DNA sequence: TTCTTCTTAATTGTCGACAATCTTGTGGGT
DNA sequence: ACCCACAAGATTGTCGACAATTAAGAAGAA
C-alpha cells in the first residue's frame, strides 16, 4: 500500500506527456530532488524525461503557475527559493481562503459528505495512534482533510487556487523544512472541532476555527524556523 | 490621451511574441471580441496574429491561468462562459483577498505612498465631476485604486493572484455585463474612507471597509443582473 | 426517421531544426 | 590590477512538419 498522497485526486489522470512530466517535476521540486534555487535548463530536463522541449515547456508554464519555478524571458527558469517572508505570505493567504472555504463547506456540504469526512478523521486518528509519530502519514492526513474541505466549498476558483496553485508550495515548505508532526494530536482535535462546526452548519465558527488552525500551524513553523536559525 | 487602462503596469513590458499575443487575446476576450463560450482553434488564432503555434500555445496556457479560457486535453480551448454563480464565486474570493491586501497595505505602505494614492483619488474625483457619467473612466479609476492597494500589500502571492489571475475576469464581467457606473459617487466615498483607514494605520478597519466596498459592488451587480433577467 | 458504425477531415500533441538572445570567457586598453 | 569591448558558446524563442487523437459526416440497419 502506497501512503504517498496524490495531491491531484480531484483532477483527471495525466493524459499527455506534458502532464506526466509536470507531475514528475512537481514531485522532484517538492521533495528537493531539484534543489531550491537551482537553474532549470529545458534541454536537460527534456532529455532526463525522454520528451521533447515542447511538452516540457508546457510543464514549465504550469510549474510557474503553482509558484514552483520562476521564469524570466530569454533567461530561463529557476526553482523557487524558500524564504521566511514567503512562508508568512503563503500562510496569510491560506488563512483567508481556507477560512472562506470552510464557511462555504459548512453551508454546502451534503450530510453524507460530512459523515464521510468525519469517518475519515476517525480513521486517521486510529492510524496515527498505531504509528505514533510516523509523520508523513500525518501530513497526508492533514493535507487530505484540507483538500476535502476545499473541494466541499464548491467554489471553482477557490479550488483551483488552493489545490492547484498553492498546495504544492505548502507541501514543499513542509517537506524541505522538515515539518514532521509534533502538532499531531492538537491538529486532530482542531480538525475535529472544525468538522463539528460544519456539521452544525455554523459557517462563521467553522471559518474562525479554520483560520485559527492555520494560524497555529504557521506559528508552529515560525517557532521551528527561529529555533533552526539559532543553530545555524 | 489614451484612457484605456493597462492592467499589467506592474509587470515588465512584453518582450516575446507570446507576450504580445497574450495581451491581444486577453483584451479580445475581455472586450467580447472573442465571444464568451466560443471555441478557440490554435491554427486560427496563430494565423490571425501572424505567429506560429508555439508562442500561441504559451499564451493559451497563461490565458488558462487567468481563467479566461478553459482547455481540455486533445479537445482544445474555449473562451469561458460568464455565469451568475461564477460571478458570485469570484467576488467571494475578492472580498477575502482584497480585504487582506487592504490590511497589509495599512501596515506596510510608506507615508509618501499613502499621500500619492490620496492625491490620485482627488484627481479621479475631479475628472469624474467634469465628465459626469462617463463610466469607463470610472472603471479605470476604480481598477487603478484597487491595483494600488493590492500592490501595496507587498505580498507577492496576493499580487499575482489578484492582478494576474482574477482581475481580467473582473474586467470581463464588468465590460460584458455593462457595469457602467451608477455607483460612482458612492464608490469614491468608499475609496476615501478606505484610504483614511490606511492613513490612520487601522488595518482592521481598512480590511472591513474594503470587504464592504466589494460586497456592495457585488450586490450592485447582482441587482442589475436580476433586473436584466426580468427583461429577457 | 433515428441510431449506430465507420470513414474522413480537422485539431491538438510532439518533434527536430533554426533564429534570436543571453551568458561566459578572452583579449586589449587604461 | 581593473574595466570594457568583443567573440564563442550555450540557452531560450520560434517555426514548420509529422503523429496521435478527437470531432464531423456519410452510410447502413433497425
TrEMBL record, chains A, B:
InterPro entries linked to this entry: GntR_C (IPR011711), TF_FadR/GntR_C (IPR008920), Tscrpt_reg_HTH_GntR (IPR000524), WH-like_DNA-bd_sf (IPR036388), WH_DNA-bd_sf (IPR036390)
Pfam family for this entry, one: GntR
Domain HTH gntR-type: residue ranges: 15-82
Gene Ontology molecular functions: DNA binding; DNA-binding transcription factor activity
Alphabetic keyword roster: DNA-binding, Transcription, Transcription regulation
Top-level division of the source organism's lineage: Bacteria
Stated name of the protein: GntR family transcriptional regulator
Species of origin: Idiomarina aquatica
Amino acid at each position: 500500500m502506497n501512503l504517498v498522497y496524490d495531491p491531484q485526486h480531484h483532477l483527471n489522470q495525466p493524459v499527455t506527456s506534458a502532464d506526466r512530466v509536470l507531475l514528475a517535476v512537481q514531485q522532484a521540486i517538492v521533495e528537493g530532488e531539484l534543489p531550491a534555487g537551482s537553474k532549470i535548463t529545458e534541454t536537460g530536463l527534456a532529455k532526463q524525461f525522454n520528451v521533447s522541449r515542447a511538452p516540457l515547456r508546457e510543464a514549465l508554464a504550469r510549474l510557474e503557475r503553482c509558484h514552483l519555478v520562476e521564469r524570466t524571458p530569454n533567461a530561463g527558469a529557476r526553482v523557487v527559493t524558500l524564504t521566511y517572508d514567503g512562508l508568512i505570505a503563503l500562510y496569510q493567504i491560506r488563512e483567508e481562503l481556507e477560512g472562506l472555504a470552510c464557511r462555504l463547506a459548512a453551508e454546502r456540504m451534503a450530510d453524507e459528505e460530512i459523515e464521510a469526512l468525519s469517518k475519515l478523521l476517525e480513521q486517521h486518528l486510529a492510524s496515527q495512534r498505531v504509528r505514533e509519530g510516523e509523520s508523513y502519514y500525518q501530513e497526508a492526513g492533514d493535507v487530505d482533510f484540507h483538500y476535502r474541505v476545499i473541494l466541499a466549498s464548491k467554489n471553482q476558483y477557490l479550488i483551483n487556487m488552493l489545490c492547484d496553485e498553492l498546495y504544492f508550495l505548502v507541501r514543499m515548505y513542509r517537506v524541505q523544512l522538515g515539518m514532521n508532526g509534533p502538532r499531531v494530536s492538537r491538529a486532530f482535535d482542531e480538525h475535529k472541532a472544525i468538522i463539528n462546526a460544519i456539521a452544525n452548519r455554523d459557517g462563521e465558527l467553522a471559518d474562525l476555527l479554520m483560520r485559527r488552525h492555520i494560524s497555529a500551524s504557521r506559528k508552529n513553523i515560525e517557532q521551528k524556523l527561529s529555533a533552526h536559525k539559532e543553530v545555524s
